[in-house]
TrEMBL record:
Matching SUPFAM superfamilies: GntR ligand-binding domain-like (SSF48008), Winged helix' DNA-binding domain (SSF46785)
Keyword Transcription regulation on entry: yes
Stored InterPro entries: GntR_C (IPR011711), TF_FadR/GntR_C (IPR008920), Tscrpt_reg_HTH_GntR (IPR000524), WH-like_DNA-bd_sf (IPR036388), WH_DNA-bd_sf (IPR036390)
Organism of provenance: hydrothermal vent metagenome
Protein name: HTH gntR-type domain-containing protein
Keywords per UniProt: DNA-binding, Transcription, Transcription regulation
This protein's record includes keyword Ligase: no
GO molecular function: DNA binding; DNA-binding transcription factor activity
HTH gntR-type domain residues: 25-93
Region (Disordered): 1-23
Signal peptide interval: none
Protein backbone atom coordinates (compact mmCIF):
# COMPACT_ATOMS: atom_id res chain seq x y z
CA UNK A 1 0.00 0.00 0.00
CA UNK A 2 1.32 3.42 -0.92
CA UNK A 3 2.34 5.80 1.83
CA UNK A 4 0.28 8.97 2.18
CA UNK A 5 1.64 11.61 -0.19
CA UNK A 6 1.47 14.27 2.51
CA UNK A 7 4.12 12.36 4.42
CA UNK A 8 6.71 12.88 1.72
CA UNK A 9 9.37 15.36 2.65
CA UNK A 10 9.43 18.77 0.99
CA UNK A 11 12.64 17.81 -0.78
CA UNK A 12 13.19 14.99 -3.23
CA UNK A 13 16.07 13.56 -5.22
CA UNK A 14 13.89 13.83 -8.28
CA UNK A 15 13.72 17.59 -7.93
CA UNK A 16 17.38 18.20 -7.23
CA UNK A 17 16.74 18.89 -3.54
CA UNK A 18 14.76 22.07 -4.18
CA UNK A 19 12.90 23.61 -1.26
CA UNK A 20 9.22 23.21 -2.05
CA UNK A 21 8.07 25.81 0.47
CA UNK A 22 4.75 25.36 2.21
CA UNK A 23 3.34 21.86 2.73
CA UNK A 24 0.28 22.17 0.54
CA UNK A 25 2.30 23.11 -2.54
CA UNK A 26 4.80 20.37 -1.72
CA UNK A 27 2.01 17.80 -1.66
CA UNK A 28 0.71 18.93 -5.05
CA UNK A 29 4.19 18.58 -6.50
CA UNK A 30 4.75 15.19 -4.86
CA UNK A 31 1.53 13.85 -6.35
CA UNK A 32 2.49 15.21 -9.80
CA UNK A 33 5.90 13.54 -9.59
CA UNK A 34 4.36 10.24 -8.40
CA UNK A 35 1.90 10.23 -11.31
CA UNK A 36 4.62 11.14 -13.81
CA UNK A 37 6.73 8.25 -12.48
CA UNK A 38 3.86 5.87 -13.14
CA UNK A 39 3.58 7.13 -16.72
CA UNK A 40 7.31 6.93 -17.37
CA UNK A 41 7.55 3.43 -15.90
CA UNK A 42 4.77 2.19 -18.20
CA UNK A 43 2.28 1.50 -15.42
CA UNK A 44 -0.01 3.96 -17.22
CA UNK A 45 0.55 3.71 -20.97
CA UNK A 46 -0.08 6.21 -23.75
CA UNK A 47 -3.80 6.39 -24.51
CA UNK A 48 -4.78 4.61 -21.29
CA UNK A 49 -7.57 6.05 -19.20
CA UNK A 50 -6.43 6.89 -15.68
CA UNK A 51 -8.32 5.53 -12.66
CA UNK A 52 -11.24 7.58 -11.38
CA UNK A 53 -10.45 10.66 -9.33
CA UNK A 54 -12.07 9.12 -6.24
CA UNK A 55 -9.88 6.03 -6.54
CA UNK A 56 -6.63 7.95 -7.08
CA UNK A 57 -7.23 10.44 -4.28
CA UNK A 58 -7.89 7.55 -1.89
CA UNK A 59 -4.87 5.58 -3.08
CA UNK A 60 -2.54 8.59 -2.74
CA UNK A 61 -4.16 9.77 0.49
CA UNK A 62 -4.81 13.31 -0.73
CA UNK A 63 -7.91 15.41 -1.26
CA UNK A 64 -9.59 15.60 -4.64
CA UNK A 65 -8.69 19.28 -4.81
CA UNK A 66 -4.99 18.47 -4.39
CA UNK A 67 -5.25 15.69 -6.98
CA UNK A 68 -6.91 18.05 -9.50
CA UNK A 69 -4.18 20.66 -9.03
CA UNK A 70 -1.54 17.98 -9.56
CA UNK A 71 -3.31 16.84 -12.71
CA UNK A 72 -3.33 20.45 -13.91
CA UNK A 73 0.48 20.35 -13.80
CA UNK A 74 0.63 17.11 -15.79
CA UNK A 75 -1.84 18.49 -18.33
CA UNK A 76 0.25 21.64 -18.74
CA UNK A 77 3.31 19.42 -19.26
CA UNK A 78 1.48 17.56 -22.05
CA UNK A 79 1.44 14.23 -20.23
CA UNK A 80 -2.34 13.83 -19.92
CA UNK A 81 -5.48 15.07 -21.63
CA UNK A 82 -8.89 15.56 -20.07
CA UNK A 83 -11.92 14.70 -22.18
CA UNK A 84 -15.25 15.95 -20.93
CA UNK A 85 -17.56 13.06 -20.17
CA UNK A 86 -14.87 10.46 -20.89
CA UNK A 87 -12.15 10.91 -18.28
CA UNK A 88 -8.41 11.61 -18.14
CA UNK A 89 -6.04 9.86 -20.53
CA UNK A 90 -2.28 9.50 -20.82
CA UNK A 91 -0.97 11.44 -23.81
CA UNK A 92 2.75 10.78 -23.51
CA UNK A 93 5.05 8.01 -24.72
CA UNK A 94 8.53 7.97 -23.10
CA UNK A 95 11.38 8.02 -25.60
CA UNK A 96 13.69 5.00 -25.57
CA UNK A 97 16.74 7.07 -24.65
CA UNK A 98 14.98 8.81 -21.77
CA UNK A 99 15.31 7.22 -18.34
CA UNK A 100 12.43 7.48 -15.86
CA UNK A 101 14.68 9.27 -13.37
CA UNK A 102 15.67 12.00 -15.83
CA UNK A 103 12.11 12.34 -17.12
CA UNK A 104 10.75 12.61 -13.59
CA UNK A 105 13.29 15.32 -12.77
CA UNK A 106 12.35 17.26 -15.91
CA UNK A 107 8.64 17.07 -15.14
CA UNK A 108 9.22 18.02 -11.52
CA UNK A 109 11.06 21.13 -12.70
CA UNK A 110 8.15 22.01 -14.98
CA UNK A 111 5.71 21.43 -12.10
CA UNK A 112 7.74 23.63 -9.77
CA UNK A 113 7.97 26.44 -12.30
CA UNK A 114 4.24 26.41 -13.08
CA UNK A 115 3.13 26.20 -9.47
CA UNK A 116 5.56 28.88 -8.30
CA UNK A 117 4.48 31.13 -11.16
CA UNK A 118 0.82 30.67 -10.22
CA UNK A 119 1.60 31.62 -6.62
CA UNK A 120 3.66 34.69 -7.53
CA UNK A 121 1.73 36.17 -10.47
CA UNK A 122 -0.53 39.12 -9.69
CA UNK A 123 -3.86 39.61 -11.53
CA UNK A 124 -2.44 42.63 -13.36
CA UNK A 125 0.65 40.69 -14.46
CA UNK A 126 -1.56 37.92 -15.79
CA UNK A 127 -3.66 40.42 -17.70
CA UNK A 128 -0.55 41.86 -19.36
CA UNK A 129 0.33 38.38 -20.62
CA UNK A 130 -3.22 37.86 -21.83
CA UNK A 131 -3.12 41.17 -23.71
CA UNK A 132 -0.04 39.93 -25.59
CA UNK A 133 -1.20 36.38 -26.32
CA UNK A 134 -4.97 36.38 -26.73
CA UNK A 135 -5.46 38.79 -29.65
CA UNK A 136 -3.17 36.59 -31.74
CA UNK A 137 -5.00 33.48 -30.50
CA UNK A 138 -8.25 35.00 -31.77
CA UNK A 139 -6.67 35.87 -35.12
CA UNK A 140 -5.46 32.31 -35.65
CA UNK A 141 -8.69 30.80 -34.31
CA UNK A 142 -10.78 32.72 -36.84
CA UNK A 143 -8.58 31.34 -39.61
CA UNK A 144 -8.21 27.76 -38.38
CA UNK A 145 -11.30 26.77 -36.39
CA UNK A 146 -13.26 23.91 -37.91
CA UNK A 147 -17.05 23.54 -37.90
CA UNK A 148 -16.70 21.20 -34.93
CA UNK A 149 -14.60 23.80 -33.08
CA UNK A 150 -17.25 26.43 -33.75
CA UNK A 151 -19.98 24.14 -32.45
CA UNK A 152 -17.98 23.53 -29.26
CA UNK A 153 -17.49 27.27 -28.80
CA UNK A 154 -21.20 27.88 -29.37
CA UNK A 155 -22.10 25.26 -26.76
CA UNK A 156 -19.91 27.07 -24.22
CA UNK A 157 -21.69 30.35 -25.01
CA UNK A 158 -25.05 28.61 -24.48
CA UNK A 159 -23.83 27.31 -21.12
CA UNK A 160 -22.54 30.76 -20.19
CA UNK A 161 -25.92 32.31 -20.98
CA UNK A 162 -27.50 30.26 -18.19
CA UNK A 163 -25.21 31.75 -15.52
CA UNK A 164 -26.76 34.69 -13.70
CA UNK A 165 -25.18 35.12 -10.27
CA UNK A 166 -22.44 32.53 -9.68
CA UNK A 167 -18.95 34.00 -10.12
CA UNK A 168 -17.43 30.52 -9.97
CA UNK A 169 -19.74 29.13 -12.68
CA UNK A 170 -19.13 32.11 -14.94
CA UNK A 171 -15.35 31.81 -14.45
CA UNK A 172 -15.50 28.15 -15.48
CA UNK A 173 -17.38 29.05 -18.66
CA UNK A 174 -14.98 31.91 -19.33
CA UNK A 175 -11.95 29.62 -18.95
CA UNK A 176 -13.53 27.03 -21.25
CA UNK A 177 -14.32 29.71 -23.86
CA UNK A 178 -10.78 31.10 -24.03
CA UNK A 179 -9.18 27.65 -23.91
CA UNK A 180 -11.43 26.52 -26.74
CA UNK A 181 -10.14 29.46 -28.79
CA UNK A 182 -6.54 28.48 -28.04
CA UNK A 183 -7.19 24.88 -29.06
CA UNK A 184 -8.99 26.17 -32.15
CA UNK A 185 -5.76 27.67 -33.43
CA UNK A 186 -4.57 24.08 -33.99
CA UNK A 187 -1.17 25.22 -32.79
CA UNK A 188 -0.21 22.76 -30.05
CA UNK A 189 2.47 24.96 -28.52
CA UNK A 190 0.16 27.96 -28.33
CA UNK A 191 -2.60 25.82 -26.79
CA UNK A 192 -0.14 24.50 -24.19
CA UNK A 193 0.98 28.03 -23.34
CA UNK A 194 -2.64 29.01 -22.81
CA UNK A 195 -3.22 26.01 -20.56
CA UNK A 196 -0.43 27.39 -18.39
CA UNK A 197 -2.23 30.75 -18.33
CA UNK A 198 -5.43 28.94 -17.37
CA UNK A 199 -3.63 27.17 -14.53
CA UNK A 200 -2.50 30.53 -13.15
CA UNK A 201 -6.08 31.79 -13.41
CA UNK A 202 -7.28 28.81 -11.36
CA UNK A 203 -4.99 29.55 -8.43
CA UNK A 204 -6.75 30.12 -5.10
CA UNK A 205 -5.56 33.74 -4.92
CA UNK A 206 -7.95 34.53 -7.75
CA UNK A 207 -11.06 33.41 -5.87
CA UNK A 208 -11.31 36.56 -3.79
CA UNK A 209 -10.70 38.86 -6.75
CA UNK A 210 -13.25 36.95 -8.82
CA UNK A 211 -15.93 37.29 -6.14
CA UNK A 212 -15.35 41.04 -5.91
CA UNK A 213 -15.41 41.71 -9.64
CA UNK A 214 -18.11 39.35 -10.90
CA UNK A 215 -21.30 40.86 -9.58
CA UNK A 216 -24.54 39.81 -11.34
CA UNK A 217 -24.46 43.02 -13.38
CA UNK A 218 -20.86 42.47 -14.47
CA UNK A 219 -21.64 38.86 -15.35
CA UNK A 220 -24.41 40.06 -17.67
CA UNK A 221 -22.09 42.61 -19.25
CA UNK A 222 -19.32 40.07 -19.77
CA UNK A 223 -21.81 37.64 -21.28
CA UNK A 224 -22.75 40.23 -23.90
CA UNK A 225 -19.07 40.84 -24.69
CA UNK A 226 -18.41 37.11 -25.14
CA UNK A 227 -21.50 36.75 -27.33
CA UNK A 228 -20.31 39.59 -29.59
CA UNK A 229 -16.84 38.06 -29.80
CA UNK A 230 -18.33 34.68 -30.67
CA UNK A 231 -20.43 36.20 -33.44
CA UNK A 232 -17.39 37.91 -34.97
CA UNK A 233 -15.44 34.64 -34.85
CA UNK A 234 -18.30 32.68 -36.39
CA UNK A 235 -18.52 35.28 -39.17
CA UNK A 236 -14.76 34.85 -39.77
CA UNK A 237 -14.32 38.59 -39.20
CA UNK A 238 -10.70 38.71 -38.07
CA UNK A 239 -10.29 42.40 -37.39
CA UNK A 240 -13.56 42.76 -35.48
CA UNK A 241 -12.84 39.66 -33.40
CA UNK A 242 -9.34 40.87 -32.53
CA UNK A 243 -10.67 44.30 -31.61
CA UNK A 244 -13.35 42.78 -29.36
CA UNK A 245 -10.70 40.71 -27.60
CA UNK A 246 -8.46 43.73 -27.04
CA UNK A 247 -11.39 45.72 -25.63
CA UNK A 248 -12.39 42.80 -23.40
CA UNK A 249 -8.91 42.53 -21.89
CA UNK A 250 -8.77 46.30 -21.32
CA UNK A 251 -12.11 46.09 -19.52
CA UNK A 252 -10.92 43.18 -17.37
CA UNK A 253 -7.84 45.16 -16.42
CA UNK A 254 -9.98 48.18 -15.52
CA UNK A 255 -12.09 45.99 -13.25
CA UNK A 256 -8.99 44.55 -11.57
CA UNK A 257 -7.62 48.02 -10.88
CA UNK A 258 -10.91 49.05 -9.31
CA UNK A 259 -10.86 46.15 -6.80
Amino acid sequence: MNKPMANKGPQSARTGGKDFGEVRSGTIRSVAVEMSDRIYSGRYKNGQRLPAERHLSGELHVSRTTLRQSMDLLENAGMIVRRAGSGTFVSYTPQVEDTPKRQAADTAEISIDILDTAEQTSPLELNVVRSVVEPEIVRLAVINMSARDMAKLGAIIDRMEKVTTSAADFSTCDEDFHLCLAEGTHNQLLATIYRMITHVRRHSTWAETREKVLSPNRIEDYKKKHRSLYQAIRNRDIETAVEYMKLHIIEVQRDLISV
